[in-house]
Specification:
179 residues; mainly alpha; Protein Binding, DinI Protein, Chain A; two-stranded parallel ribbon; rod-shaped
């Protein structure tokens, strides 16, 4: 427990000491940069179109499952036990496929976001490093590292301008590329 408090004290002292000697500080807002990047927003629109197609596929499959269940309910009084069990097994099998379909679509969408977002973040890092060297910034904080800052030290707009002029090669990956 004492080690934990010592570490926190040492860490806060180290941060405060570095801030005291840092003369040139800047901040960036990654969320704002992503929100204002033309290519990333175009990718998200493309992904949204794909998501609608996938949702239609899920809805159609769900309708098929519902019809299977209804047919079992409606026809169970006319069927013997073996036929009912066969239909229930088939329904369960189709329901499992349905669940797997939903999972695969969720993975497909989230992986596409992750892969493309990482491309954007990698370029943001490169741009930020270049700005840091050119402008001689000692420290650059992101929004997760500070509570509030003056807009005069925020370089997000500069990063957005440079990022929007760079071809990020964002794309919608196919299911084959994802899986």
């Amino acid at each position: 427990m004492i080690k934990k408090y010592f570490f926190l004290f040492f860490f806060s002292f180290f941060i405060n000491y570095n801030l005291a000697i840092a003369s040139n500080i800047a901040t960036i807002n990654l969320e704002y940069i992503l929100k204002n990047n033309i290519q990333y927003n175009s990718f998200l629109n493309l992904l949204d179109d794909k998501k609608n197609i996938l949702q239609n596929e899920i809805s159609n499959y769900n309708q098929k499952i519902d019809e299977l269940k209804k047919s079992i309910d409606d026809e169970s009084i006319f069927l013997n036990e073996e036929e009912i069990n066969n239909r229930i097994n088939y329904y369960n099998s189709e329901y499992e496929k349905f669940q797997l379909l939903i999972q695969s679509h969720e993975i497909f969408l989230s992986k596409n976001i992750d892969l493309n977002k990482q491309l954007v973040l990698d370029q943001i890092i490169k741009i930020t490093q270049k700005i840091s060297i050119d402008e001689k910034f000692d420290i650059i904080f992101s929004e997760s590292n500070y509570f509030m800052s003056n807009n005069l030290i925020d370089i997000s707009e500069n990063i957005i301008k440079q990022l929007n002029n760079f071809d990020l090669k964002l794309k919608l990956y196919s299911k084959e590329e994802i899986f």
